[in-house]
Structure formats: structure tokens, C-alpha cells
């Protein structure tokens, strides 16, 4: 599972790294974020009709096009890679609506000596931006309300670096697999090379401040020994 992540790279760096045009809502997207929680609007890269890449802001928590209520999105913040093509909530998006979700790192919680789960921050050892595999959907409630665009993060079995903390992790895509994933024709099993490389990741324990979704400051990333 991935229930929190951080994205503090500058917007121009994110756009350049992912080869995408900046979003229309530049002001909202520009602020660094150290504690991104479900239901928030997050940056995601999608292919345009012309084949270029565009950064957009989507709500985290996928609402299928057929859903009667938007609240279903609270339960669909992650999509298991193993069941993308069979689970009704993700099947349609998996066949045609892929996206990349940029992150500087993500959090996972592991049991500690005191019995309370402690958060850890996980990131790439080389400091490069992460790109999660994602799916997106467009949901219309009816009437004059604008369509709600939402997304979910695809997860896979944790590699050796993450497994001591949690048994799942986001699918982190290599540069090559980012292109293949956005084309929406490559099966997720063919895009797991980077996620399976434990040597590419590093993790350290952080304070419990990240448990509070209202907190969002660089201090949340500071190492705090257990």
C-alpha cells in the first residue's frame, strides 16, 4: 500500500524530468509537499490526443466512471498490479487511461520495539525523481457540475529494500517504462524492472508527525532513530 508520499522537487524540474507541459493551475502545483494524503489533488502526467505529455492535477482516489457516489474513491487510492485487468474498478482505466504520478519519495509504516508502527521515508538512492505507475478516470455526477478527474497508484510486491517495512510498494517506473506505460498497451508485468531493484532505494525512520495529514513541512523527512 502507498498511503502517503512527498513531492518537493521544483515544478520546472518535474516537468523537464517527465517531458511534460506544466499544468494550467501552476500556483497550486508549485508548492513543495512533504505529506501528501489521499483525497488531495496531486500532479499526474497524461498523454494528450496529439501524443505529447501534460501535467495535470487529479484527485487521489479513483472514482470509476460507473460509480454512483464519489466516496468510493476513498477506498481506491491504490490498485494492485496483479488484478488490474480483472477488478471492475480498474479494468476500464487499465485498458486505456494510464498516467505517471511524480514523487520525491513515499512513506511506509513498520512495527517498532514499542509495538507502535513507525513511519519510514523511502526514496531513490541516487536522488532522482520517482514516477509511479498510475491509472486515471473521469467521473460525471450529472447536472452542471464539472467532471471529476481522479487517479490511483499502482502497487506491486515490495522489493528487498521495502519488504522489512511493508509487503507492498508503488510501481516505480524507469525512463523507458514511463513511455511504455503511458502508451497504455504495455502490461504492467513488463514495467517492474526498477521497482524490483532493491539497490535503487534507500529508507530511514522518521517521526510520527507524518501521521497527521495537516502537517506538511520539511522536518517530517528528518531521520529519527527508533
Shape: globular
User: What is the element string, with H for helices and E for strands?
Assistant: EHHEEEEHEEEEEEHE
List the total number of helices. Answer: 4
How far is the first residue's CA from the last residue's CA? 22 Å
The tally of strands reads 12
Which CATH-level-2 architecture? Alpha-Beta Complex
The low-confidence parts are none
Gyration radius, rounded? 17 Å
Q: Residue-averaged pLDDT, rounded?
A: 94
CATH domain topology: hypothetical protein yedk fold
Percent helix range: 10-25%
Structural class of the helices, strands and pairings? alpha+beta
- Measured by DSSP, the beta-strand proportion falls in 25-35%
CATH fourth-tier homologous superfamily: SOS response associated peptidase-like
Total count of domains:
1
What summary fits the major beta sheet?
A: 7 strands, mixed
